[in-house]
Amino acid sequence: MIPFPDSRQFMGVDSWSLYHYTGTDKMLFSLNPASGTPVYLQLMQQVRHAIETGVLRQGDLLPGIRTLAQELVVSHNTVAKAYSELQHEGLLELRHGSGAYISARRNSRSNEEKLRLAQQRVRRLVESLQEDGLSEEAISRLFEAELFYSLRADAR
Amino acid sequence: MMLWYKAWRESRVRFLVSAVALAIVCAGFVFFHRDVSGGISDEPLSYPMYIWRITYQGYLRELFMILAILLGLGGLARERDRRTAGFTLALPVSRWRLLATRTMVGFGQVVLLATIPAIVLPLLSPLIGQAYPSSQAWAFAILWATVGSLIFAMSLLASVLFAGEFTAPVAAILGLTAYSFLADVRPLERYLTDIHDVMSGFDMPYFEERTGVLTGPLPWATVFTLFFAAAALIVIGAWITNRQDF
Amino acid sequence: MSDARVIETHQLTKRFGQFAAVEALDLNVRAQQITGFLGRNGAGKSTTIKMLLGMTHPTSGTGTLLGRSIDDAKENREARRDIAYVGEDKQLYAYFTVEELIRFTRSFYADWRPEVAKRLLADYELPPKRKVRALSKGMRTKLALLLALSRKPELLILDEPSEGLDPVAIEELLQRLVGAASEGTTIFFSSHQIAEVERIADRVCILDHGTLVEDFSLDELRKDYRRVTLGFATNAPADEFRMPGIRRVRRADRQLSVLVRGNADAVAAQGRSMNAVSVDVVPISLREVFLESVRSESDLHP
Question: What's the gap in Å between the CA of C280 and the closest CA on chain A?
Answer without folding.
Answer: 7
